[in-house]
Amino acid sequence: MDLADKVATPGHDARPGAALPLLAAGPGAFDLLDGVRVLDLTTSIAGPYAGMLLGDLGAEVVKVERPGAGDDARAWGPPFLDGESLWFVAVNRNKRSLTLDITSTAGAELLRGLIGQADVLLVNQPARSLAKLGLAPAQLRAARPELIHVSITGFGLTGERADHAGYDLIAEGYSGVMDLTGTPESEPQKVGAPAADMLAGQDAAMAAIAALFARARTGRGRSIDIALTDSMTRFLTCRIVPYLGSGEVPRRSGGRDSVIAIYQAFETADEPITLGLGNDGIWRRFWEAAGRPERGRGPAHGSNALRRAHRAAIVAEIQDILRGRPRAEWLAAFAAARVPAGPINRVDQVVADPALIARGLFYQVEAEGTAMPQVGTGFLLDGAANRPRRPPPRLGADTAAVLGEWLGLDAARVAALKAEGAL
Q: How are strands ordered across the β-sheet holding 223-227?
């Protein structure tokens, strides 16, 4: 943490995030995509998350929003912080906001000019709407074959469901993940985060980066078609392929039926833990940590296949042992023995984890006098965590600046466009 950073003093702000590091925007931010311009026309979570990831990696991202209302997610609350939806704040850092009525004649003309300056275009309207607005891949790339056009929808731009509306919840239901989430006696459950949105957003960013890499060699852009349902279904690869190869339909089981025989949650004397005995060596080390090394060396359960055949009895045996000591003692013993184990954290415990904070995963960035909490990019580059270049933008805060830099419009022209209602 350099001198531009500080940690808020506990007690001055009751918000849980107030004690997180407050990072100065700019210095130390990743710059891998420096010079790449991204025009983000998306709303909600998946598309904005894709744009944020590209911005995190150094791209210049301009978020085009509806005048007066902006991104749908700006209204998703409570909770709000200083008038901003925290759902919006979660996926919109490292962008500038430009308001534009793309349905107006002047707005549509400006949009075409902005697209002419962009390397990557992010959209999340269905195929029919894109065609009506003149934003379909074929329409735009006919004039600019070097453009990388990235579409994110519920079901893709082709096929019988192309015009169907879709959200994260709908994609999770289609994918099978809800049927596999929960205990046998429970109803199907949604994942506890917008998993399809986040996966689709990550897929979109990854595909855009790959397309940029290819364009550097060929000069040709690409049309990328991302579907929430596809991304969420791909997430189940390790459940789908075993079914396709064996005919065994997986059922929800509270996470107790992994191909790894002992891979689940257990109770201790106070709080639960997770335990993953993923190979024969870990199996033996577990029993050494539990004080029964001879148990781990016995031939009866010496392989994963044998342990799976006797899973219920082994689980009951381990459960009886783990109830004898509190969680902290077990986790210390397992860490020393290199046995994969961990707590089952609540969100308030996760964000207070000093190891995650030290890796740059949680911080605050100042936005017009308000410290906005953020979750970091999630990986280190040359040993350093990423840092924010811009806080999540206020609606339309950068309209004049972007129109001046990208299209050469002066203040008088911008004022006239605002008077017309185009901005």
A: 96-99, 60-65, 37-40, 120-123, 148-153, 223-227
Residues 238/231, Cβ–Cβ less than 8 Å: no
Return the amino acid letter for 268: T
Per the omega criterion (within 30 degrees of 0), is the bond before 293 cis?
no
Q: Would you place residue 354 in the very low, low, confident or very high pLDDT band (cuts 50, 70, 90)? A: very high
Query: How far apart (Å, rounded) are the C-alpha atoms in residues 411 and 185?
Result: 64
Catalytic residue status for 197: yes
> Whats the size of the chain, residue-wise?
423
DSSP 299: G
Q: Would you place residue 9 in the very low, low, confident or very high pLDDT band (cuts 50, 70, 90)?
A: very low
Strand segments (E) across 247-338: 262-266, 273-277
Residue 183 has pLDDT above 80, yes or no: yes
Burial 335-363 (b: 16+ CB within 10 A, else e): eebebebebeeeeeeebeeeeebeebbbb
Q: How far does the chain reach from its first CA to its final CA, in angstroms?
A: 39
| Closest to 264 (Cα-Cα) out of 251, 274, 272, 253 | 274
Q: Among residues 249, 253, 271, which one has the least CA distance to residue 263? A: 253
Annotated active-site residue in 56, 168, 197, 203: 197
Whole-angstrom Cα distance, residue 116 to residue 111? 8
| Rounded (to 5) percent helix, strand, coil in the chain | 40, 15, 45
Q: pLDDT, tens digit, for every residue of 313-330?
A: 999 999 999 999 999 999
Dihedral through CA 297, CA 301, CA 303, CA 309, nearest 10? Answer: -170
Q: For the residues 250-254, what does the mean pLDDT come to?
A: 89
pLDDT tens-digit map of 71-102? 999 999 999 999 999 999 999 999 999 999 99
Tokens in use for 251?
A: 């059922």
The pLDDT tens digits of the residues spanning 11-41 come to: 457 788 899 999 999 889 999 999 999 999 9
